[in-house]
Amino acid sequence: MNFAASNFSFFSLFLKADFVVKFVIIILIAASIYSWAIIIEKYKLFKKINGSSSFFEDQFWSSKSADSLYKKLEGYNEDPMANVFKAGMDFMIKNKSRSASNQERVLQALSGSIDKEMEVVEKKLTFLATVGSTAPFIGLFGTVWGIMNSFQSIAISKNKSCNCCSWYSGGVICNCVRVTSSNTGGRCLQ
User: Fold this and answer.
1) Quick one: 106 exposed, middle or buried, by C-beta within 10 A (0-12, 13-18, 19+)?
2) What is the mean pLDDT of the chain?
3) Cα–Cα dist 184/37, whole Å
4) With a threshold of 0.90, does the pTM exceed it?
5) CA 105 to chain centre
6) Beta-carbon neighbour count of residue 92 at 10 Å?
7) Residues 34-46: what's their mean pLDDT?
8) How far is Cα 103 from Cα 164, in angstroms, rounded to an integer?
9) How many CA atoms lie within 13 A of 152 on its CB side?
10) Least reliable range by pLDDT among 19-23, 57-61, 143-147
11) Quick check: 84 and 117 in contact, CB under 8 A?
12) DSSP for the chain?
């Protein structure tokens, strides 16, 4: 078989790769796909939050009192800022005293509500951070493994033509997938 007749398509090179390289490529592709799903989900969430926050701010600054705004927002839980406001108002309505210790407890209630809303917003971001920081090393492992196998194949075949180099391409494919998946997770967090 000559060099020109070799099939260098991604699929044929993938099929020629050894199990470890295939496994690394599949892991990196899956991580990349899931990362993109998270990125799209977060984009939609932040777009929704931006719109709802603008609505809440308009309502907040145009209302005559906190009580009237609280009544207006009774069934509304689309916006994290509105939810924090309602948590603070709930606490204030239940505890009518104006002592200094009560103010501290209101701040604690607000802080707890902020933490709860931040959990929703930050959900799955640790996965993106993990993919962004580990994918380069996982892909590099697959690349090195593929290159080692190609050199072993060259040594075993004692062939000095370019045909024997097609096994090297498994490592190159793994490197390409590594770069793609690490950029997916890492760029989103920036």
Assistant:
1) middle
2) 77
3) 11
4) no
5) 35
6) 19
7) 92
8) 76
9) 7
10) 143-147
11) yes
12) --GGGS---HHHHHHHS-HHHHHHHHHHHHHHHHHHHHHHHHHHHHHHHHHHHHHHHHHHHH-S-HHHHHHHTTT--S-HHHHHHHHHHHHHHH-----HHHHHHHHHHHHHHHHHHHHHHHTTHHHHHHHHHHHHHHHHHHHHHHHHHHHHHHHHHT--SGGGGGGGHHHHHHHHHHHHHHHHHHHHH-
Contact 13, 166 (CB under 8 A): yes
Phi, psi at residue 7, to the nearest 5°?
-95, 115
| Amino acid in the structure at residue 40 | I
The C-alpha atoms of residue 26 and residue 174 are separated, in whole angstroms, by 9
pLDDT attached to residue 181: 60
Q: To which residue do tokens 């009774």 refer?
A: 74
d(CA 182, CA 189): 11
Contact between residue 21 and residue 149 where contact means Cβ atoms under 8 Å apart: yes
Answer for the pair 114, 138: CB distance below 8 angstroms, yes or no. no
